[in-house]
Amino acid sequence: MTDTVLDLFKLTGRRAIVTGGSGGIGLAIAKALGEAGALVALVSRTRTRLEAAATEVPNSVAVPADVMTIDPGQLVDECEAALGGPIDIVVHAAGFQHREPSVDFPVEQWDRLIRVHLTAPFLISQELGRRQLAAGRPASHIFIGSLNNWQSVVPNIPAYAAAKSGIGGAMRALSKEWSGKGIRCNGIAPGWVHTELTETLFSDWSRAKSIIARIPMGRLAEPSELGSVALFLASDASSYITGQMLVVDGGWTTS
Ligand code: NAD
């Protein structure tokens, strides 16, 4: 029987790693991939939180790890063992924020932010890419960018802005090298989502209101609205898309 277009979104039998899978955007993405049939390894630091998240994600396992410090080879080995085979999809959604004026910004926080948002995604993708290229295995790598890829949206986040600008370049570089061999690399640049990462912004209601007033759609994004986009990029529905940073911002950047 001929597949319908909806069949292109199915991830049955594919194995995925989602870093930052215990909450926020990462958890919503993991749910979308799991609901589409993928086996999902949720990676984050705290085992109890991760195991609670795993109960919400079909076909998932918890793999506690700090992406800042873990050896990428060890992480991929652990995920492959937990899922019973090689990885087809990775979504790099681990992240945190540190807000401080640039004149006072501590180098330790600069290093941590660059490590989590830029170096770790590259190293994990590098490790996966080595294995997938050697096996001739098609794959989809998805990086989470930000409007800070292009804009200086709010003050006091110089390291985050640098890392998010950098991840777009790293993603395009990997796409250039690997897409001809079956590994597509793309990114998602979310607009505004109320999660732990943005809690300090959105707990200030007057600030939240002024941000929302600038969004043409007049509201924040739901994490699930990033999940469905990640499913599109992870699946064969996006088979001719690579090297793109897909903006999901309710119209912010074009208004
Ligand atoms: P969140 O704080 O809700 O979730 C972040 C996740 O990353 C958590 O599960 C956390 O435990 C995990 N994490 C943090 N450091 C880690 C580490 N060292 N090792 C492993 N896991 C770690 O944040 P979120 O808003 O869901 O952010 C997810 C991604 O989306 C981040 O890359 C963030 O920069 C990006 N983003 C968020 C927004 C937004 O408005 N919330 C906008 C643009 C981009």
Structure description:
About 40% of the residues lie in helices and about 15% in strands. With about 260 residues, it is an alpha/beta fold. A seven-stranded parallel beta sheet has the order 3-2-1-4-5-6-7, sandwiched between helices. The protein is globular and about 50 Å long.
SSE layout:
Blueprint: E1 15-19, H1 24-35, E2 39-44, H2 47-54, E3 60-64, H3 72-83, E4 89-92, H4 107-135, E5 139-144, H5 158-178, E6 183-190, H6 199-202, H7 205-213, H8 223-234, E7 245-248
Query: Numbering strands along the chain, what is their spatial order in the largest sheet?
Result: 3-2-1-4-5-6-7
Strand and helix order: EHEHEHEHEHEHHHE
Average pLDDT taken over every residue: 96
Distance between the termini: 45 Å
Q: Supply the number of helical segments.
A: 8
The computed structural class is alpha/beta
Name every ligand kind in the structure. Answer: nicotinamide-adenine-dinucleotide
- CA-atom Rg in angstroms: 18 Å
Coarse morphology:
globular
Which regions have little confidence, pLDDT < 50, spanning 5+ residues?
none
- Estimated share of beta-strand residues: 5-15%
Helix content class:
40-55%
Sheet with the most strands?
7 strands, parallel
> How many strand segments?
7
